[in-house]
TrEMBL record:
Transmembrane segments: 6-26, 50-73, 79-104, 116-137, 143-161
Keyword entries, A-Z: Membrane, Transmembrane, Transmembrane helix
Protein name: Uncharacterized protein
Source organism of this protein record: Stenotrophomonas ginsengisoli
Length: 164
């Protein structure tokens, strides 16, 4: 990674930790003690991170690949399998961050507006990650990461926010 383009990517874990701290501070009175609020916040953070991190990258990239294969009228099952395996290379960290932020904000996310917020967050993090690591500065080149991030976040959010 070039040092000049990826320096701001360190803000991602800082954003997640500050969001967790804000949740604990806001919900500590409702939970009865700050330790209970911190436990609930960490549980939702870890659950969201694992769900989004494990499911969103392969689902999102395979959906984009399948769509491009259907447009070109060429179907390659090996490309889907390879895409599912290689999706973790570029999509794991944005998916973990999206899941962590969705888990932290879960008490305030109703089902459908929350799903839309997760889709927008997944698209933004997917595109920003690839632009940040020096993929290319153009918006056109970040369309595939944004689209696969949005589709992966949609699939994970539908499951994650089903009881909200």
């Amino acid at each position: 990674m070039p040092a000049d383009t990826s320096a701001w990517l360190w803000l991602l874990p800082v954003l997640v930790l500050l969001s967790l701290l804000a949740r604990v501070m806001i919900l500590r009175q409702q939970a009865g003690h700050w330790k209970i609020a911190a436990f609930d916040g960490c549980r939702d953070l870890i659950g969201g991170s694992l769900l989004y991190g494990l499911t969103a990258p392969p689902l999102g990239l395979c959906a984009v690949l399948l769509g491009s294969m259907l447009i070109g009228w060429e179907f390659h099952p090996a490309a889907l399998l390879l895409g599912a395996l290689l999706s973790y290379v570029g999509g794991l960290l944005p998916a973990l961050a999206c899941g962590a932020l969705a888990g932290i904000a879960r008490p305030w996310l109703p089902r459908w507006p929350g799903t839309l917020a997760c889709v927008l967050l997944g698209a933004a993090l997917g595109a920003a990650w690839f632009v940040g690591i020096g993929w290319s500065g153009s918006l056109r080149s970040s369309l595939v990461p944004a689209l696969s991030g949005a589709i992966g976040a949609l699939a994970a959010a539908l499951f994650h926010l089903r009881h909200n």
